[in-house]
Amino acid sequence: MTSPIGGFVSRDFDVAGKTPTSMYTNKTTTDGGSKSVADQDTFLKLLVAQLKYQDPSNPADSTQFLAQTAQFTQVEKLGQIADMLQAQQLIGASSLVGTTVTYQDEYGMTKTGVVTKTKLNGDSEPILVVGNMDVQLSRVTEVQQTPPAAPVKTT
């Protein structure tokens, strides 16, 4: 199954320019796309074989074949929706770079800090780097814009 932005193996964002600093690979599009086609081909081959070798005295019900095809298509589309939702979550996490977040740490304590980087690794949940802590996106309870830094006066 192919996601609109491909698969992230590792992609970090910096606060300064919000630009990628590590390598991006399009793994999901290459591997996932061919796997989806292979699954569909396998399903169709099985369907044709089932029709070809059916018992002539007891033919298969055509509505069953239509139902199986519809179910296969539905499962395939649900997988595509899941990929798109994951891509949306990754995009949302990367937009938090430079914002102030409030989150609960692993001990249940509420902490606040500025997101300096987002780690996007494969299929796992995005990780926000807040200070020197890695914070799961699901632990964030509040997001607010970071106030601009006061200009430094030179004399």
Automatic annotation (TrEMBL):
GO BP term, pick one: bacterial-type flagellum organization
Species the sequence originates in: Actinoplanes digitatis
Superkingdom of source: Bacteria
Family: Belongs to the FlgD family.
Designated name of the protein: Flagellar basal-body rod modification protein FlgD
Keywords tagged on the record: Bacterial flagellum biogenesis, Cell projection, Cilium, Flagellum
Pfam families (alphabetical): FlgD
InterPro entries, A to Z: FlgD
